[in-house]
Queue: 2 jobs
Job 1
Amino acid sequence: MTLKVLLADSDATRAACVESSLAELGNATIVRVPAGGSIHDAVAVEAPDVVIVDMARSDRDGLDDLRRVTACNPRPIVMFVDSDDRSFMEEAIAAGVSSYNVVDASFPDVKPIVMAAVAIFRRYRRLEADLEKANASLMERGLVDRAKALLMRQRRIGEPEAYQWLRRKAMNENKRIAAVAADLLASVPSLQQGQASAED
């Protein structure tokens, strides 16, 4: 599997060091952010697996571009800076930087840094997806419970019968039970829904 790396660096010498180190991976394709171009636009065009940003100094204006990437097209972002600035580090991580590295004249081996950043980013995205799935499941369960309470009140039936009603309707309409529950709740006045929720 080829690893596509987007490199944003205005210093040709430092960029060459990064490219030389990544070349040792054997499966890395390196593309550059065009002169005068934005990282956000380059990510949209190139769809890289990882972004490397090398800053000669802490540049808070440059973080705006990274925030746009994180919001619209998240990718693992590795940042190298040549000065230790705790405040800037916190801002960079908040902007979406996965790996923040302070370097001196002797540039470090980039390979393990990049691979670790990619692995951490992928794990974070999996955890984020699992959390979204869990939240969606809780929301669906809440809809079903409210719909059952409404049916029990309106039809004077028990909880098993209310659930069976929702289940049959879902099968007949080829929908998820949660979707049927949402439709049912949307079809009654909001006051009724509130009463049903209070009695659940």
Job 2
Amino acid sequence: MTASAAHVTIATSSGALWLALIIHFAGGLLGLASGTLAIVVTKGGRTHRRAGRLFVVAMITGGIFAAGIALYERNYGSLIGGAFTAYLVFTAFTTVRPLAGRHAHAVNLALMFLAFGLALTQLSFGVMAINNPVRGVPTPMIFFVGSVALLAAVGDWRLLRAGTLAGSRRLARHLWRMCFGLFIASGSFFFGQVKFLPGALRIPPLLATLGIAPLIVLLYWMWRIRLRKRLQGVVLRTADETPG
């Protein structure tokens, strides 16, 4: 893996770089807030849809700016993370609000290849990190994110083959991608930005719980929807009616 340039911060940057950091940070905080709201309210209801749209916009914005900042730093692991975050929440959104128009299939195909490319690159970084660990990033986490990206790419391939999804399969695809996108935000904040929290909140068990909470929610919904087939309390809509 190529050595990174100096890590940039809000305090040490200026101009366009400073603005990019502010937008990235604001997008992450807004994504955390709106994603948490979307989790706790009735799925498919008005509040859920509004919070979901805000979450998608915030996370795509934060992910794109994160990728740009990482490219400036030559931090290619974070570049993949930012691009994967934007891809993940966008495809979660298009699961319930499919793209329309003659180029929709081409866009979905490109997104699938993007996911495969991100997955293979991330897994390659993981192999290199076995003998040359990345500072601040556990090697198992590199493999974990790469494996999730690969599963997402395979899911895109299956969707392209099927043409459409309905019922519990569509809902499961939407929810797991949204929840994992929220996990990226919560993990980045509660594990990587502890210095911004008041001292009274810097309790390792609390931070760990908050950081992985979206993964717990993800597992719950996959158990409920895919294994138990329980959709009670979820407002179901057709794919062209549900905005997020």
